[in-house]
């Protein structure tokens, strides 16, 4: 799979490097927001939940559906611990491993649709539908509704732009998603099925069922995080391998190296570039004083390229040991779906290497980054390959 060198002129990495060198803890007076860029500082912000809160309700001026504010990603202990205990049952190693045969089947079905054409858009024909189908089947979303759910997801992440975008803005998409999940949950309450929605409805926290908003919020969060992260991880892996043909050849010779390669993709081109927190009490980072109520953006994409944390940090190296990247977060909010994202990506890349050995990017096809400070990926990746 030789695609030629991928240029990334719009990438944030030169800016990250400059900020780490000149203003690793920077204050934006207009928004009363702090930005941290060094690995040590990002790790602290993500780990110390008592000082840096995840509660969206603390964000001034942000209009979100109450269900989003009650979701797992938007709560602090003890509520967060209670919610995570219940929903984590769907993502135990055993539960995730049990999905492998179905994921492999979906991957093959997606490739079967394009293999005779000799070309596809790697993002929209493959990396995009794979996690959508997996998450939709987990939640029990009807087949005919999956495209609409993905459009809402795109609107939340990117706004009303790009392929298959929704005309809704992020706030409206949040509301529409929450409203639709509310209707779907009500259907499961009346008529349970063997899906995650029904199981969550039946679950209890200390003898009590999940609150309606918490349940809706988790569904919205799972759809957003479970699809966008994996889509961009697969696409970013292709970009990294394109820039490193020797690594691609090595993976073809020894596919057992794929798990380490995926970890390096997570570090080098993190699908999630930034995470948000709110300061709960006056504190300091370095020589800067942060006041309670101020917002903090932890730049994960910068932390994962920090020269003080990673030797030769700007080099893509699948044999990097150790590789303590922060791509899935840190502490109590470490991504619950990380094992699923890794599994989907490993199965997807294995199939691409085996079934499309001469996969290459269409010459001259432009690469456009997703217009978001939160996630990193390309909106489209046209490729060609020989017909078997």
Strand and helix layout:
Layout: H1 13-22, E1 25-28, E2 33-36, H2 39-47, E3 52-53, H3 66-69, H4 79-87, H5 93-97, H6 100-114, E4 119-121, H7 122-127, H8 129-139, H9 146-158, H10 170-190, H11 196-202, E5 204-205, E6 208-209, H12 212-243, H13 245-253, H14 258-268, E7 274-279, E8 283-285, E9 288-290, E10 295-299, H15 300-303, H16 338-355, E11 360-361, E12 382-384
Helix pairs in contact: 6-8, 6-16, 8-12, 9-10, 9-12, 10-12, 12-14, 12-16
Detailed description of the structure:
Helix content is 47%, strand content 10%. The protein is an alpha+beta fold. β1 (25-28) and β2 (33-36) form a beta hairpin. Mean pLDDT is 85; it is low at 1-7, 57-70 and 160-166.
């Amino acid at each position: 799979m030789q695609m030629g060198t991928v240029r990334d002129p719009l990438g944030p990495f030169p800016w990250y490097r400059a900020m780490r060198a000149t203003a690793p803890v920077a204050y934006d007076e207009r928004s009363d927001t702090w930005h941290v860029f060094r690995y040590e500082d990002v790790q602290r912000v993500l780990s110390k939940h008592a000082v840096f809160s995840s509660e969206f309700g603390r964000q001034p001026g942000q209009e979100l559906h109450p269900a989003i504010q009650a979701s797992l990603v938007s709560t602090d202990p003890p509520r967060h611990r209670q919610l995570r205990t219940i929903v984590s049952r769907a993502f135990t190693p055993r539960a995730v491993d049990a999905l492998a045969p179905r994921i492999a089947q979906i991957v093959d079905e997606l490739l079967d649709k394009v293999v005779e054409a000799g070309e596809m858009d790697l993002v929209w024909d493959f990396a995009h539908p794979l996690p959508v189908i997996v998450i939709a089947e987990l939640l029990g979303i009807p087949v005919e509704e999956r495209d609409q759910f993905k459009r809402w997801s795109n609107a939340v992440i990117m706004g009303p732009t790009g392929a298959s975008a929704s005309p809704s803005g992020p706030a409206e998409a949040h509301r529409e998603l929450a409203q639709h999940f509310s209707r779907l949950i009500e259907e499961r309450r009346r008529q349970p099925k063997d899906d995650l929605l029904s199981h969550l409805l039946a679950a209890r926290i200390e003898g009590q069922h999940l609150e309606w908003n918490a349940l809706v919020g988790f569904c919205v969060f799972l759809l957003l995080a479970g699809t966008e992260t994996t889509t961009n991880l697969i696409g970013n892996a292709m970009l990294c391998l394109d820039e490193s043909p020797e690594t691609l050849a090595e993976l073809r010779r020894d596919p057992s190296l794929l798990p380490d390669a995926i970890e390096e993709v997570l570090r080098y081109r993190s699908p999630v570039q930034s995470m948000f927190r709110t300061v709960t009490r006056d504190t300091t980072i370095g020589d800067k004083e942060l006041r309670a109520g101020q917002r903090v953006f932890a730049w994960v994409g910068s932390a994962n390229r920090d020269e003080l944390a990673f030797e030769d940090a700007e080099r893509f190296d699948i044999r990097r040991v150790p590789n303590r990247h922060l791509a899935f977060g840190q502490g109590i909010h470490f991504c619950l779906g990380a094992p699923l994202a890794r599994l989907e990506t490993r199965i997807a890349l294995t199939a691409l290497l085996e079934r499309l050995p001469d996969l290459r990017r269409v010459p001259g096809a432009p690469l456009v980054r997703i217009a978001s400070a939160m996630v990193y990926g390309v909106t489209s990746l046209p490729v060609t390959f020989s017909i078997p």
